[in-house]
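This follows on from our talk about sequence and fold. Please put the record directly below this note.
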Amino acid sequence: MRSQQPEPAEPAGTDAGAGPPDPVVATARRRLDELRAVRTPVEDFRTAVRDLVVIASPFRGGTTLLTELLRGAGDLLHFQAEMQPILRLAGWTHPENGADSERLSGLTGDVALLESELGSDVGNPVSDWDAIDWSRFAQDVLWRWIVQWPTAPLSLAEVESMLAKALADQPPGGLDDGSGDPTRAVGLTLLKMLTTRYGCVNPYYADVSATEINGILPEAARPAGPHGDTVLEFAPLALPKPWKRATRQEVESRTVITKTPVNVYKLGALREFFPRARMRIVHLTRNPGAAISSYREAWLSHWFFNARVGTPLNIAGYTEPGRPWSRDWWKLDFPPGWQDLTQSPLEEVCATQWRCSHTAILDFAERNKDIDVLRLQYEDLIGTAHERTRAIDELAGWLGTDRAPLLDPAVRGMTPMNALTLPRRAKWYGNYDVLKDALNSPDVLSLASELGYSTDLTDWP
């Protein structure tokens, strides 16, 4: 039997209450309010959405790779990156939500802000250099930098000036460096300019390889700890890319895709937020060995800081004397009951985060049987050409979209994003000795079986 999540506790203490407004959050909200005057949202976005697909999975489950694959289908709509910073600004994340964890029940927070920001963001990537609206791109760059580096006093005029200089250095039609993105060089140039101008910016927090950072900024210091006193967007920070905002007609007639991992605790709230939408769920799974091992790598990296907590942490394997932030900074998501894990080994923390996320999805699906759920294994997306083809056929058919734009990149293989190490089967075996107690726990093995994986760890890919 699947272990149940604990019932919500009454808010208590520093970590449970919403508390006074965070000045960094308040400043970011004010600056984004000003930017919204030119970065206008789709009118009545909440009620315009008629078909919503939530890619539901824990952190480190492969959602970024799947979403990037789906961006190739022009009839699907997306958000530019994670919803996380918008959720935080709207009071939908812990501790801003005033709850004891990430879990929400019903609508809460600033619903108007959430609607306007999502409605300003929904759309599609633009890969054709000649089709890029550079004025809109400058607005999107400023938006992204505000949520990444909220203490940097940037203005739209300054970003426009930086962009003009970056474009002056590019050949006509952009520079294709083999990534398939002719604008990537522009993004790297802007990152270099931003780092040079503002001391608070460290480029190693961006979702860019260390080799590329060293190539443009060889003097940049490797980071330690979180990238700010308050984190709005989790590192690795998205590199802004050209984007075309959807029209209201497109929102009404196309499927909107969202994939932020903390949304596994907000599925009911999302259903209420989009009252006219048919909601569907892609439940993306990954074998526990690989998933929990990747959680552990994330905790030990310089990325994925979430929020400072009032309860001192003493997590064996994470909290160390030479890492002062490891005493009060939590990473990734806050599952129900996380307060009971502040003195636990890191492997137990990671296993609980993985388990609670999947349990939240399964429980929601059990309570809402009218919602169509497609379960998809991440291993099939990085498996053999036959496995990838089969997975894409099933996914495209379920979504009602053409398989052709998805099939070629899936079979060819995609460049990983948000990856600490290159994805490959069985790489988690290298951490087996550290993880074995957590992986062999009854809760993990029971959930593994429910998700379709063997309880024999040697069968996990």
About this structure: The domain at 46-122+246-459 is CATH 3.40.50.300 (Rossmann fold). The radius of gyration is 21 Å.
